[in-house]
Amino acid sequence: MLILGQKYTLTDLEIQRLNKKVNSLNTIVYKDKDPLGVIAEIKHYLDKDKFSIIVLNTKIKVDNEIIKYLTNLKFDDNSKEVEIISIEHFLEKYLHKCYISEDNTDLHYLDDIKPYSTFQKIQKKIIDIVAILVLFMIFPFLYFITKKKINEQSSGDLYFKQKRVGLNNKEFECVKFRSMHEDAEKHGVQFASKDDPRIFEWGEIMRKSRIDEVPQVFNILKGEMSLIGPRPERKYWIEKDFEKNIPYYSQRHIVTPGITGWAQVMYPYGDGIKDARQKLMYDLYYIKYWSLKLEMKVIWKTVLVVVGKKGL
Fold this sequence. Notes:
Blueprint: E1 2-4, H1 12-19, E2 26-28, H2 35-49, E3 53-56, H3 64-74, E4 83-86, H4 87-94, H5 118-153, E5 159-165, E6 171-177, H6 201-209, H7 217-221, E7 226-228, H8 235-245, E8 258-260, H9 262-266, H10 273-288, H11 292-306
Parallel strand pairs: 1-2, 1-3, 3-4, 7-8
Antiparallel strand pairs: 5-6
C-alpha cells in the first residue's frame, strides 16, 4: 500500500492493523517536490513491491503531471490491479471509521448518510430488550460482589451518578458502579488517566472489564440509552473542548448513546481532544453504516473485552 501525502496521520494501532493486511506500507511526501521526481518515486514502489493500493491522502494542490500519471495508471491495462482511493473512502473501507478534517472544510461524511429505517429501529429495539433480560440476570451477582469489594476497599456509595449528554443533546443521569474514591474530583473536573490513583483496586478491574457500566441497564429501561451507541460524555467537556475543536462532534447526539460502542471496541482508552477525535471517527462510522451485522460485531468484541481478550 502506498500513501500519497500527509492529510491524515495513521495511528500506531492503525499501522499495526494494516500491516496484517498488506505486505508493505510506504508514504510519499510530495510537498515542495519536483512532480516528475514524485512520479518516479511512485513508479519505483510499484515496480519494486507490486503495490495494489494507492491512497490519495492530500490536502494541498496536486501538480497536473501527477494527476495525469495517476489517471493514466487507472486506465492502464497493465495496472488493473492497482486501486486508487481517497483517504476518506480508504478509512471507511479498510479501517471502518469516518474521516474528520481539522476544520469544517471537508463534508465527505454527509455522502450517502441517511436516517435509520423503521425495520432497523425495530431490530435495535429487540437487541435492547434482549440486553435488558441478560443484564438483569447477571446484575444480582455483580451487585453483591461489588458491594462487598467497595465496602472493603473504598467505603461510600455503591453507585456513581453523573449527568451525561444523550439523544438530541438532552442531559440524563447516567449510573455506574463506583470505581473511584468518593473525593475523586475534589480538585476539579478531570479525565481519568492510565494508572489513575483515584481508582481503587476493584474499580480498576471493573473498568477494564466494563462491568462498572452494567447498572446502566436502568438507563436502557428509561429509554435514555441503548446497549450499543456512542458513549455519553459530560456536558462540561463537550462545551469546553470537543464541540469547539472537533468538527461533527455534535452529530454523535443524533442517536441514542450506548453502554458499549464501536469506538469503545476499536480504540483504546483516551483522555483528551486527540483521542476524542479518533473515537468520534468510529462513532460516525457506526451511525453512517449501522447494520445488524455491525451491531453483532460490537457485541462480540465487547464480550472479548469483558473476558479479558481486549477486542481491539
